[in-house]
TrEMBL record:
The keyword Aminoacyl-tRNA synthetase belongs to this UniProt entry's keyword annotation: no
Entry-linked Gene3D superfamilies: 3.40.630.30
Protein's UniProt name: Acyl-CoA N-acyltransferase
Organism expressing this protein natively: Lophium mytilinum
InterPro entries: Acyl_CoA_acyltransferase, GNAT_dom, Trichothecene_AcTrans
A GO MF label: acyltransferase activity, transferring groups other than amino-acyl groups
Domain N-acetyltransferase: 106-174
Protein keywords: Acyltransferase, Transferase
CDD domains per UniProt: NAT_SF
């Protein structure tokens, strides 16, 4: 069946949550965001908040018939990114669920934020937050559809792009002209877990 790229809507969020937890199985994700109902609910609320923000873009890749909105359609991948913006202050941040590792979550967010500030400074940039494809549908081009759309939007705006990639995901981003600029790490069960800080320059049409 054909693959289609579409903008996700709020009704898709439960399926996106399922897809996220089925896809991400790294030691970091399993420790910080274990697949249990309270953490799923926290992530669901996070997506519901993001999808309402004018600078947030959530896209899905659907496998199904050529006609849209077929009942048999399956969401096999999704991506979430944001255009340049100033984050408004939150009166009350969403509380991280007790079932997750809040301390490790804060450590990762702190280190990621510090590296991003060091690399990108005060310039405007596009941020790629999630790129997920169901394991059984990987290597079929779903990730490339999402990355092509992301790069198209960033290139049209003329801004650089930023992503934090796992070592496993790093080659995917390199294929789309991302370059590694730095790394940060946390220790999980006595072993270092490394994330790659990657930047992509806007590409000009030939």
């Amino acid at each position: 069946m054909s693959l289609r790229l579409e903008r996700a809507d709020k009704a898709d969020i439960p399926k996106l949550v399922d897809l996220y937890f089925e896809t991400f199985k790294s030691p970091l994700v399993l420790r910080v965001k274990p697949d249990v109902p309270p953490v799923r609910e926290w992530y669901k609320k996070s997506l519901e908040s993001d999808i309402e923000k004018p600078y947030s873009r959530i896209y899905k890749v659907v496998e199904g018939q050529a006609e849209p909105e077929q009942a048999s359609d399956e969401i096999i991948a999704f991506g979430k990114w944001s255009s340049p913006h100033t984050e408004p202050p939150q009166d009350k941040p969403t509380e991280f669920p007790a079932d997750g590792d809040a301390a490790l979550f804060e450590e990762v967010v702190g280190k990621a934020t510090e590296k991003k500030k060091k690399i990108m400074g005060e310039e405007e940039y596009w941020y790629l937050g999630v790129l997920a494809t169901l394991p059984k549908h990987q290597r079929r081009g779903a990730g490339s559809l999402l990355m092509t759309e992301f790069c198209k939007q960033a290139d049209e705006a003329g801004h650089r792009s930023y992503v934090e990639a796992s070592p496993h995901g790093k080659p995917t981003y390199q294929r789309f002209a991302f370059e590694m600029r730095d790394t940060f790490s946390v220790v999980i069960d006595g072993e270092p877990y490394v994330d790659c800080c990657m930047v992509r320059e806007p590409q000009r049409p030939l």
